[in-house]
Design goal:
Blueprint (H helix, E strand, L loop, with lengths): L1 E3 L6 H14 L5 E3 L2 E3 L3 E3 L5 E3 H10 L10 E5 L4 E6 L2 E7 H4 L5 H16 L5 E3 L18 H7 L3 E6 L5 H10 L3 H4 L2 E9 L7 H11 L3 E6 L26 E6 L4 E2 L5 H5 L3 E6 L2 H5 L3 E4 L1 E2 L2 H10 L2 H10 L3 E5 L1 H5 L3 E3 L10 E3 L6 E18 L6 E13 L7 E3 L5 E2 L1 E4 L2 E4 L8 H8 L13 H19 L2 H8 L4
Parallel strand pairs: 1-10, 2-9, 3-6, 10-11, 11-12, 13-15, 13-16, 16-18, 18-26, 19-21
Antiparallel strand pairs: 4-5, 6-7, 7-8, 14-17, 19-20, 21-22, 21-23, 23-24, 25-26
Length: about 475
């Protein structure tokens, strides 16, 4: 298990790298995180929902993702409430207070333990990931994902400490010493992550950390910017609020308060023809060639905010001036004439007018659609891949044309008004080179670079990550720990 001294210390990326290393070394690894809290989710081949981080780790391990890799997913719908997804299906909304009460925890604990048992029967080794800090002693009795999970799995624990945020000695020592004696024995090593500068300057620090913590430091991993692995959550978006750039196709993703599945844009961000930035600044939106309304966990609330802050009017104004507008999932719903929620699925807002760019009307429902799909779009015969995760049904009016044709079952998806105005429920549509070329083709006067093979690109990134970890982490020592020799 990779456990953390805190949130965002790099556990997910290190877990992906270890999955690829074990695959390269001839093993059959699989990732596991008992409980994940994220708006970034993915659909399994069976049509269930898991955290995107475990889907990425499964890809690094070279295997299909499965709900057993992330049996419990919490999708925040407000500052205090989350949708609870168990074994890939939503089971309701809970406040943080009610969720973390002791009552009912045994049912969830049994479910995540059973998922691990099934997974461990199929793969070896299991690369487990903790959540946040392992030192939240006020939550230890109800914890499902950190040391109690390690105890159930009889897992050795490697503590991941982030040196970039400062206080690395205190956070590592405190994380070890605050554990119960039986849990402290499970911590077999430390990885110091996100180091900047000359590693030789920390050699004495390594010795001091080993002395005070009583376990070896397996490695000091330098911070990197040249390896691109999909992020687990939206913290990274704070670094992507960039202005438009000359000489490329400028793509603005509207920065929604409840933005979900932002990994829809990773492939586009890597395309040399494109400059992609996130913004809710009305002036920056006017500079974009393409505006994308992304997915949202709370469509009506985000739609209300877009109307309040002037972004809705800015999108309409840009579209009248020739900007392409594409909506994905919740963004697709917002582009329609009206969004209705008569049963209060999302909250207290029962209905709102949409942007009116697409002749569709959406009604929210309690049943979530979750599945992987193959499709083609428009007149193209190219077979593309994506996935759907949404609540609500959108009905087309005025003989409107669908954007996509689902090959899996023959039904249609999305809405197409023109080459510069369209929407879809399909996440991952921008991972397909054919659709990206189609989207950019209206702006060919700016295109100078060749298209990106995103599948090959991601494989290259996993291999680069594995090489980076091998260079800075004592992998032979890790194997000895795993075999019980240390």
């Amino acid at each position: 298990m990779l456990a953390g001294t805190g949130s965002d210390v790099g556990k997910s990326v290190l877990a992906a790298g270890l999955c690829r290393i074990f695959l390269q070394d001839g093993y059959a690894p699989a990732p596991f995180k008992a409980q994940n809290m994220a708006l970034n989710s993915f659909a399994t081949p069976e049509g269930y929902e898991i955290g995107r981080a475990q889907a990425v780790q499964a890809e690094a391990a070279g295997i299909p993702c499965h709900t057993d890799m992330n049996p419990l997913l919490l999708k925040p719908s407000s500052d205090h409430t989350s949708q609870v997804v168990l074994n890939g299906k939503p089971i309701g909304n809970k406040s943080a207070y009610s969720y973390f009460r002791k009552e009912g925890r045994d049912e969830l604990r049994n479910a995540v333990n059973a998922a691990f048992t099934r997974l461990a029967a199929r793969y070896n080794p299991i690369v487990m990931e903790g959540a946040g800090s392992i030192s939240e002693i006020n939550l230890q009795d109800t914890d499902l994902v950190n040391m109690p999970m390690a105890r159930y799995a009889d897992a050795d624990v490697i503590l991941v400490a982030d040196i970039d945020r400062g206080g690395v000695f205190a956070s590592a020592y405190g994380s070890v010493m605050l554990q119960k004696p039986e849990d402290r024995k499970r911590i077999k090593g430390i990885i110091v992550n996100k180091f900047r500068g000359d590693i030789r300057l920390f050699q004495e620090g390594v010795k001091m950390m080993e002395q005070i913590c009583g376990v070896p430091v397996l490695g000091v991993v330098p911070y990197f910017k040249d390896i691109h692995i999909e992020e687990e959550d939206s913290l990274a978006l704070d670094y992507k609020k960039l202005q438009a750039e000359k000489g490329k196709v400028n793509v603005a993703v509207v920065l929604l308060r409840h933005l979900s599945n932002f990994t829809d844009f990773n492939r586009l961000e890597m395309d040399e023809r494109v400059h992609l930035f996130y913004t809710n600044n009305t002036e920056e939106l006017q500079k974009a060639d393409i505006i994308i309304l992304p997915g949202s966990k709370s469509t009506l609330d985000d739609l209300s905010e877009l109307r309040r802050n002037g972004v809705a009017q800015a999108i309409l104004r840009a579209h009248r001036q020739g900007t392409t507008v594409l909506g994905i999932c919740g963004g697709y719903q917002m582009m329609g004439r009206e969004v209705m929620d008569p049963d209060g699925v999302e909250g207290s807002i029962s209905r709102l007018p949409g942007l009116g760019l697409l002749p569709i009307v959406t009604t929210m429902s309690g049943e979530k659609v979750t599945r992987q799909v193959e499709f083609n779009f428009g007149d193209s015969k190219e077979v593309c891949q994506g996935y759907e995760i949404h609540m609500g049904e959108s009905v087309l009016h005025d003989d409107a044309q669908p954007l996509c044709h689902i090959l899996t079952d023959g039904h249609s998806d999305g809405c197409f008004v023109s080459h510069r105005c369209m929407g879809t429920y399909i996440h991952g549509i921008l991972d397909n080179s054919a659709f990206v070329d189609y989207l950019l083709s209206e702006h060919t006067d700016k295109l100078q670079h060749t298209q990106l093979d995103y599948v090959a690109y991601k494989e290259e990134q996993y291999n680069k990550l594995a090489a980076h970890i091998r260079q800075h982490v004592n992998i032979p020592l890790l194997y000895r720990i795993m075999k019980g020799e240390e």
